[in-house]
Amino acid sequence: MGCLRPARPGGAAILLAAALGGACVRPPTQHTIRIAHEADALSLDPLTVAEAATHSILSNLYEGLVAFDAEMRLVPALAVQWNSLDEHTWQIELRPGVRFHDGHVFGAEDVKYTLDRARSDPDSGVRGHLATLSRVHVLSPTRLRLVTTRPDPLLMNRLTYVHVVHAPDQASGPGVPVGTGPYRFVSWQPGRQLDLEAFPEYWGGAPSFAKARFVPVAEGYDSIKVLKARQVDVLRYLPETQSGELQGSGVRVAERAGLTSYYLWLRSRAAPGERQPLADRRVRRALSLAIDRARIVQSLGGLGAPAEQLVQKGVFGHVTGLPPIGHDPEQARALLREAGYAAGFEVTLVHRAQASQTLVARLIRDQLGVVGIQVGLEAPDWPDMVQSIRRAGLPFFLMGWRFENGDAASFLRDCLMTRDAARGAGNYNPGYSNPALDRLIEDNAQMFGETARLAQYAELMKLVLDEMPLVPLYHRANLYGVSERVAWKPRLDGKLLAAEMSPN
Questions:
Q1: Tens digits of per-residue pLDDT, 182-214?
Q2: Quick check: 218 and 38 in contact, CB under 8 A?
Q3: What pTM was estimated for this model as a whole?
């Protein structure tokens, strides 16, 4: 018999979440679950990196105040209850009896330290999620109050990405990751493996597997090899074009629509006296018109869907009735001539060194070449690419964005608002700036009514499609390789959580 779980808490943007009931406790086995991501963790400090694979791995050790379940419903985690007292104030009730992996009792001071550090540390990778937070008041060991600078109905959604760490006077020591999650740290060999063991005092009950090992496996034929050789049990983001090679191998392919969309990111500004083609709106629109999105999806095995607007169906912010993005090379050439680039120009496209991304980058190179744009390709190491993006050091690159909270608001703030470190805006914006769009994004993020927000999204998305600061490409469907010895269903957000896996 399966575990009974409480129903989804009701309510809209202002809500009171019901506390979770008794956890379903399963006796741990002595097996080790071996889990493969497409990259190693960039850091074991959860506040320094917002990169997707790192966040997925660290979600096995750390927890936030709230979490998303497998269907992207907001559920209690370290907080059992939250209430919006007014448009600027949230009151949080914490789960009692929770312990960190070293035995320290979790409490409100740990949350305050985490949130203060996350929004003030210059190395913070999650500062943008807390841009509206102004004060954290500890009311008791299990109660605190958050005050925001403006109405922020999505604050609790964004707090799912802020993992709680020790207050400094309770920390176990430098370099030792200590969280409250179902697994605790054993050892880490960067680039090779991260070993964890089940935490016997976890508030949610013991997981099925006593140990968990996380290994990085680069996308490509190595992925197929390690699955067939039973070196890993679950692999995230199986290459779309190679899934057929697993037939008859004892490894099943699990598919699930994901939350990741891929874009061409453009530095759409020019320095004084500089002739920068991508700073011209007509050139950006020409890039978009030159790309055959259906062909890209077809090359990826037909999985996923061509992007018809900035965000996909199922993400709040998708607007029905917008005209789809077209594919028209002749119109692209006309726009290039109008912008003064009849002979085209040269540009370097930076992309991740993965099989699927290399394939897509080559297709884009060929399709842009048809309209006279000469594209060189460059594939640096992923950590170096992430650092360059955060420094706004790449003028033209291919990258995905995962809408992990099911809403476009964080994406718009991080990727399209004018870059402003003081406000935590534009952290991944390569150079676009539009005050009118900034105002629309800010206004939308402060609206509590979903009907009003969606109506304004229609205006916002029309402006974005006209300006084309990012070129939408396709929405990815996620494939996973899963050993027959493991029972597990993929999550909508793509996370690999060992506590959700069990022996088959």
A1: 999 999 999 999 999 999 999 999 999 999 999
A2: yes
A3: 0.70
